[in-house]
Design a protein that fits this description.
Order of helices and strands: HHEEEHEEHHHEHEEHEEHHEEH
Strand order of the largest sheet: 2-1-5-4-3
InterPro entries: HATPase_C_sf, HATPase_dom, His_kinase_dom, HisK_dim/P_dom, HisK_dim/P_sf, Sensor_HK_Regulatory, Sig_transdc_His_kin-like_C
Helix content: 55-70%
Shape: rod-shaped
Protein name: histidine kinase
Number of domains: 3
Keywords: Coiled coil, Kinase, Membrane, Phosphoprotein, Transferase, Transmembrane, Transmembrane helix, Two-component regulatory system
Enzyme class: transferase
GO molecular function: phosphorelay sensor kinase activity
Structural class: alpha+beta
Number of helices: 11
Length: 466
């Protein structure tokens, strides 16, 4: 119990209430002592009035008056004359004197503490002002032990009352904490445990109900996190299912393409000029398709190979990409301009670079054709001491805002209806594998530009390949 939040609140409440009562106890006892002594002075003054009424008191009556006043002697001072009003023998010498005429608070507290710690049966002298202007001063001698006993009894009453108040306050606070804090927190914990058992079940997502603002903020934050996690798990599940399906399709497609590759060997022997011109491109396309299937299968086994870096002629790769996309565009009013320097050689994996450029150019072509307007795609390349740069620019309609926000996220960055959004994700991953980066330079209603940066530094390329 005491390790719980409510249990600790209970203990702290008792401690704080008792501490407050202790702070109240000291001045309260000091005030009680002052009232006690003033009452004795007043009773002694009343007893002395009998002497004024009858100058000759019977000794027995004088003793009774002193006993009722609980003092030994009463001295009144009138007109600077000190007069012994009532007297009796003192059992012991006077041990201390206390002046009750306008004492300070600290003096009262110090005298009260001194009385409490003193266990001797001392005789004390007390000075005070007579009531109703009955003189200049009144002085009495009395036992201190009855005063101490009365102070202890009063202190015990205060402590008992404090303990009762502490217990009642602590119980009320305990119940309040249970209702306002512990129960809602336990509800949140129960929701978290239920959600942990089936995070993909959207019904387990918490619904904020707390009335306390801080707890409601926590519930809302937990709700947002659970919604995001559930969405991510569903997406990963779809990706896993898609990966399994793609692996199966790639396996069968690789076998089909391998058979087609055997047929192309015979086609290459044809004397037909058109066949002679188209056969190498067909062979290259089928070879790339086979490699893509093998790479997909490897990826499905979490064995995506590092790029096989070699010196490749960029113009040849771009030429294959351009020919393929021109064929796909058919008679559509689309111009694909190749401005790659013929002799530009860079260090990269030729097959992976082909896939990167093919994805970018294909996306540009599909965007232009979807707009229904004529367009142009331009490919440029340059190099400096640090890197090779490849620019792919189009005059299409530009990327919508949603696509820009999720540009390199699978299944979220697609512009075309029905698209998977994997093209740019694959392209970015392949470029990153070379130690480079793929970035969106600009996009507007006038077109979109992507830039591929491949570093020349062997260290960067080696690190990317590992």
């Amino acid at each position: 119990m005491f390790n719980s939040l409510s249990g600790r609140f209970l203990i702290l409440t008792i401690i704080f209430v008792m501490l407050a009562e202790v702070l109240i106890f000291v001045p309260s006892v000091a005030r009680f002592r002052e009232d006690y002594l003033l009452a004795r002075l007043e009773r002694a003054q009343i007893a002395s009035l009998a002497l004024e009424a009858d100058a000759m008191l019977d000794p027995a009556l004088e003793v009774e008056l002193l006993r009722n006043a609980e003092v030994y002697n009463v001295v009144l001072r009138r007109d600077e004359v000190r007069q012994l009003a009532l007297s009796s023998p003192l059992p012991a010498p006077v041990a201390a004197s206390y002046d009750m005429r306008n004492p300070s608070g600290l003096t009262l507290i110090a005298d009260a503490m001194r009385t409490l710690v003193n266990t001797d049966d001392d005789i004390i002298r007390v000075f005070g002002n007579p009531v109703r202007e009955g003189g200049l001063m009144i002085e009495v001698t009395m036992d201190e032990m009855p005063l101490r006993d009365a102070m202890l009894a009063y202190g015990r009453n205060i402590l008992i009352l404090s303990a009762f108040i502490s217990i009642v306050t602590a119980c009320l606070l305990f119940l309040a904490v249970q209702v306002l804090l512990v129960r809602p927190i336990k509800g949140v914990v129960d929701h978290m445990q239920s959600y942990a058992k089936a995070p993909e079940d959207a019904r387990q997502i918490i619904t904020p109900t707390a009335g306390v603002r801080e707890l409601r903020d926590a519930e809302e934050a937990l709700q947002t996190m659970q919604q995001q996690l559930t969405g991510a798990l569903k997406q990963k599940e779809r990706l896993a299912q898609l990966g399994g399906a793609v692996a199966k399709v790639s396996h069968d497609l690789r076998n089909i393409l391998t058979s087609a590759q055997l047929f192309t060997d015979r086609i290459e022997g044809s004397d037909d000029p058109l066949v002679i011109r188209m056969a190498p491109k067909l062979v290259n396309s089928i070879t790339r398709a086979v490699n893509l299937c093998e790479t997909t299968l490897a990826f499905g086994r979490v064995e995506e190979p590092a790029p096989a870096l070699a010196r490749v002629n960029l113009a040849q790769i771009v030429d294959d990409v351009v020919d393929s996309e021109r064929l796909a565009a058919g008679d559509y009013d689309l111009v694909i301009t190749d401005e790659i320097p013929p002799m530009l050689t860079l260090r990269a994996d030729g097959e992976q670079l082909y896939r990167v450029l093919s994805n970018l150019v294909r996306n540009a072509r599909q965007a232009i054709m979807a707009s229904g307007n004529a367009g142009e795609i331009i490919l440029r390349a340059s190099e400096d001491d640090q890197a090779w740069s490849i620019l792919v620019r189009d005059t299409g309609p530009g990327l919508p805002k949603k696509a820009q926000e999720h540009l390199f996220q699978a299944f979220q960055g697609s512009v075309r209806k029905g698209g998977s959004g994997l093209g740019l994700v694959i392209a970015a991953d392949l470029v990153r594998g070379h130690g480079g980066r793929l970035e969106l330079l600009e996009t507007s209603e006038n077109g979109t530009s992507f830039l591929i940066k491949l570093p020349k530094a062997d260290l960067a390329l080696t690190s990317a390949a590992e």
